[in-house]
Amino acid sequence: MSVVNGLSVDIEEWFQVGAFEKTIARGDWESLESRVERNTGMVLDLFAEAGVKGTFFTLGWVAARHPALVRRIVAEGHEIASHGWDHARVFTMDAAAFRDDLRRARAVLEDAGGVAVTGYRAPSFSIDARTPWAHRVLAEEGYAYSSSVAPIAHDHYGWRDSPRYAWRPLADAPLIELPVTVAEIAGRRLATGGGFFRMLPAALTDFAVRQVNDAGQPAIFYFHPWEVDPGQPRVVDAPLRSKLRHYSRLGAMAGKLGGLVRRHDWGRIDAITAAR
Predict the structure, then answer these.
(1) Residue 152 class from Cβ within 10 Å (0-12 exposed, 13-18 middle, 19+ buried)?
(2) Is pTM, for the whole model, over 0.90?
(3) Quick one: CA torsion of 220, 225, 228, 234, rounded to 10 degrees?
């Protein structure tokens, strides 16, 4: 019997990404072109054509401005989960601020979608060794799972000491942490989702999925709607490294995704969590 893997999308605008957080001020967001509804619609169409369901980790900020998008995601059989309010990284908050962020986002998501929100993903995988209180807060707020850890060493994010597969961070709570999938080659861990999938050969992600499935574990794959949008505005004054990470191979992403979702079995992360 094949393993069902977690297919996930982090719903945010092109201007809310970590790569531009020091270039684009939050106060300017409202004046910038919104493309999230268009781009997420393309993703939903791609999933419908492939006959797959997934989890859409959505910013509360986006849900407040595009409630019809949240309703469409739910109506098409996908899971709505929380990506926090406005892409603030968890390690920039204390426990009280994190709790407020969770509550604010969840209220808007549940109001728009009409369904309970039980999953969470930290912006930029920002739950790590610096946030020992984060899983406790999630459990107290009634979340069933988090998919907020990237078990790698990376300049932008990562918690290399995290378990590679699903684990329970609290001995006295049922909360499950499902790290995003990495490939392990000669003792090194390599990221396989998002920009790594976009820029590296798809065979690396296929290898990682087969590797974790052979261990009896589900892969957790992620990407962003802005990654299927080669026509998005260019941030000319961003650092070169940020521009390379954000804009490289955007035109190839939709085709690569279409192949990936057909080569493996995929589903919602809440269903994977419930089966554990």
Answers:
(1) buried
(2) yes
(3) -130
